[in-house]
Design goal:
By secondary structure, the chain is of the alpha+beta class. The chain is built from eleven helices and four strands.
């Protein structure tokens, strides 16, 4: 009887504790492109290890319910192998955000990282320690975990993701002496350093304002007020122009434009002629190579 009472008490206490889960619900895919001579089980183990590293690790101090976890897809395409445990290729990362009152997920970013080189030995633990560089694979994965957390937070509160961008920059800093590509400022305008620098640079805060207003004040109210939500989105697109006029080739600007292009076109297909014209003028300026796609809303 006493034992039963203790069990009931423990269950009651657990029931009072806040729900907790890891932050991510990620889909990990490993694709091979012309790679021969490697046991396929290596890649299946790689996929499982990365899945567990991203989805089972605790990346923040915030509590997430199961249904609140951040959804993303990461496709790692392995196109070269050196020896038996050093791999090279690309990562395609797609981050999604659920829209209030709907079953629709909005793509926040859709980027390709071409500078992926890493060592992987099957069945060995994947370690990452904040502030230090252990290996390139876990550093890359941790970097993108923090970037995704930052972007997700930015869509719910104005500049809410800063703490996670700072963690991503710490990963970049720790990797400076690694001799691996993608971490250095001088390597070019489109790499991991540049992306997080753009996100933290106050000169480009208009894009973070866009992330917040576009999603929380625009998309999230469209289930109840399509016209009002679309009007807010139309206004917030001006943030693209603000940054474009400062630095037209900014990596973050290109990443967000690439992710949002299909959605913007869809949103304004049923807009008023004036709203269509304003959207087309803005997007043709910041995304001239795809101007005809925006103009298609008039057909």
């Amino acid at each position: 009887m006493i034992r039963k009472a203790i069990i009931i008490f423990v269950i009651y206490i657990l029931g009072l504790m806040p729900g907790f889960s890891q932050e991510f619900l990620g889909n990990i895919q490993i694709q091979t492109q012309g790679v021969e001579g490697i046991d396929p089980s290596v890649f299946s183990n790689m996929e499982t290890s990365i899945f567990e590293f991203m989805n089972n690790r605790v990346w923040s101090s915030y509590t997430y319910k199961i249904e609140e976890r951040i959804e993303f897809t990461m496709v790692i395409t392995v196109s070269e192998v050196r020896g038996s445990d050093y791999f090279g290729g690309t990562i395609n990362l797609v981050l999604q955000r659920p829209i209030f009152g709907t079953d629709y997920n909005s793509v926040v970013i859709n980027l390709i990282d071409n500078d992926i080189r890493f060592e992987f030995i099957p069945h060995q633990p994947m370690d990452f320690i904040e502030g230090s560089y252990t290996n390139n694979l876990t550093s890359i994965l941790a970097y993108y975990a923090y970037i995704m957390l930052g972007l997700d937070f930015d869509t719910y509160s104005l500049e809410g993701g800063t703490q996670f961008y700072e963690k991503a920059m710490a990963v970049v800093t720790a990797a400076q002496n690694s001799n691996e590509k993608g971490w250095q400022a001088f390597e070019g305008p489109k790499n991991r350093y540049q992306l997080v620098e753009n996100l933290l640079n106050p000169s480009y805060n208009a894009l973070r304002k866009l992330l917040y207003e576009y999603h929380l004040k625009g998309l999230d109210i469209m289930s109840n007020d399509i016209i009002g939500g679309r009007a807010i989105i139309g206004q917030t697109l001006k943030n693209y122009s603000t940054v474009y006029n400062k630095r037209s080739g900014l990596y973050l600007l290109q990443v967000l434009t690439e992710a949002k292009r299909p959605e913007i076109i869809s949103i304004f297909t049923e807009a008023s002629p004036a709203e269509k014209t304003e959207m087309i003028n803005i997007m043709k300026e910041v995304d001239p190579a795809n101007g005809s796609r925006y103009e298609a809303v008039n057909k």
